[in-house]
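in:
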């Protein structure tokens, strides 16, 4: 058993709270495993949110691409939701005239309260 008093000048590990007994004076972690645990815990939520949003955008894009392949240019929001489309996830929104224009990457469409219409791929400008 170690009966030494703690040296108050030594830094303390941000993850486990143990004193850091060696290394440079500005060191924040006692080991690589404490450093990894700290950063994994700290960034877990933001990574999971990003993955959720990217997954939803990918699903929306797949649904819109399928509609384009089937040459469907207008569909009700109910039918679209049954296909797995989530209208909350888009990559851009613009007010164009009296319509709301939405985009999911390179596919644009116009939306009313019950339907989306004029689904088309945006052409690359030279």
């Amino acid at each position: 058993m170690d009966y030494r008093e703690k040296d108050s000048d030594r830094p303390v590990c941000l993850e486990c709270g143990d004193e850091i007994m060696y290394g440079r004076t500005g060191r924040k972690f006692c080991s690589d495993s404490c450093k990894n645990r700290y950063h994994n815990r700290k960034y877990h939520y933001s990574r999971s949110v990003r993955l959720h949003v990217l997954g939803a955008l990918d699903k929306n894009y797949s649904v819109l691409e399928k509609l384009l392949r089937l040459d469907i240019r207008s569909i009700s929001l109910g039918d679209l939701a049954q296909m797995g489309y989530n209208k909350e996830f888009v990559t851009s929104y613009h007010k164009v005239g009296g319509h709301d224009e939405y985009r999911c990457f390179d596919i644009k469409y116009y939306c009313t309260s019950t339907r989306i219409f004029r689904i088309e791929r945006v052409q690359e400008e030279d």
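note: Residues 67 and 73 are 7 Å apart (CA to CA).
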